Amino acid sequence: MLKTTINQVFKHVDEDVTIGAWIANKRSSGKIAFLQLRDGTGFIQGVVVKAEVEEEVFKLAKSVTQETSVYVTGQVTKDERSPLGFELQVKSIEVIHEATDYPITPKEHGTEFLMDHRHLWLRSKKQHAIMKIRNEIIRATYEFFHQEGFVKVDPPILTGSAPEGTTELFATKYFDEDAYLSQSGQLYMEAAAMALGKVFSFGPTFRAEKSKTKRHLIEFWMIEPEMAFVEFNENLEYQENYVTHVVQSVLENCKVELHTLGRDTAKLENIKAPFPRITYDEAIKFLQEKGFDDIEWGDDFGAPHETAIAESYDKPVFITHYPTSLKPFYMQPAPDRDDVVLCADLIAPEGYGEIIGGSERVHDLELLEARLKEHGLDQETYKWYTELRQYGSVPHSGFGLGLERTVAWISGAPHVRETIPFPRLLNRLYP
């Protein structure tokens, strides 16, 4: 018998196939039983008609328990009512392992219960869809940067210094030295850009930030490109082209998953470069006019501020030229004023907040050394970083995209905890 997977059944219409699967759910209606089958690649309905199968097969179809693993054999037929477009006319069922008392039933469960059973919750239809969208974003990321001539570089996770200070880092001992779990690979990526031109990294980052919002994780994944000979405006163009590519790839390749999640794809179809841009100055004025009396120049934006700004646009919006005092030491000052830097945050629509932070980097050695001093950072610790400006310094730029926030936005997930397989939250290290 031909063995296949659910995502490949379209190749076998009107043929008999065998699929290894789990029973996601089942229901019966008199002389017909309906099995919701999943195999990791997708979901398909198996139809068992009593009059067309042996008596034992029909009894098994009615009694088989949720999450029991099976081999199901049947004929693939077209079905326009199915999001997949196909269903399986079941002829035989072979039980591999019977599951009993599966804890996550089709009824409603509380968040904490589901998080305690995250290892099983991942099997559900919506969680499966979010993970498939996450995977497509990762695939499209590699595709975009490969097409643009970037080289993938892997920065270290254990570091001896911090790009933005050590207040929100996890400290550990590296034999007899202090070390930290990386909150960003950026500084190392700058070194790689001076060797390879255009580079990007994709890896885990860690922030010991005691936040409980729907946008924050303790451990999350970042895509961090750095580009030699690229200045501020060109950096923004790379960002909007990258985000456009990712969104359009998800629309093209995750139609079933977006349908499963009930995502309004019309909002995503509009996501195409160029994106609107406003300055920090303009954003402050806008917020004050909108009634945010608590905000004044020099303040950072919180979630309500970002959401109010984003609601005025139907695409992601860049907020540029933040005050120097709000940003890290490595950002290049604007040429016409020294109180703001050449940076931008990209704010996603629909209340999902900042998904990218980027800037042109300081490339002048004296200015960088002065900035390190201003921020109270040890010059010796950053000696290797300052040497990048000592031997053939060039204007260069980069940015970091938070994968989980991007997945949440594109999939419409209500919380970033659903966008990573095993989330690490302020009070959760299990499972």
From TrEMBL:
Q: Which InterPro entries does this chain map to? A: Aa-tRNA-synt_II, aa-tRNA-synth_II, aa-tRNA-synth_II/BPL/LPL, Asn-tRNA-ligase, Asp/Asn-tRNA-synth_IIb, NA-bd_OB-fold, NA-bd_OB_tRNA
Recorded GO molecular functions are: asparagine-tRNA ligase activity; ATP binding; catalytic activity, acting on a protein; nucleic acid binding; transferase activity
Q: Which PROSITE patterns match?
A: AA_TRNA_LIGASE_II
Q: What is its EC number?
A: 6.1.1.22
Compartments where located: Cytoplasm
A GO BP entry is: asparaginyl-tRNA aminoacylation
Which top EC class is given?
ligase
Which top-rank group of organisms is this from? Bacteria
Assembly information from the UniProt record: Homodimer.
Q: Which HAMAP family match?
A: Asn_tRNA_synth
Q: What is the protein name given in its UniProt record? A: Asparagine--tRNA ligase
Recorded source organism is: Bacillus pumilus (Bacillus mesentericus)
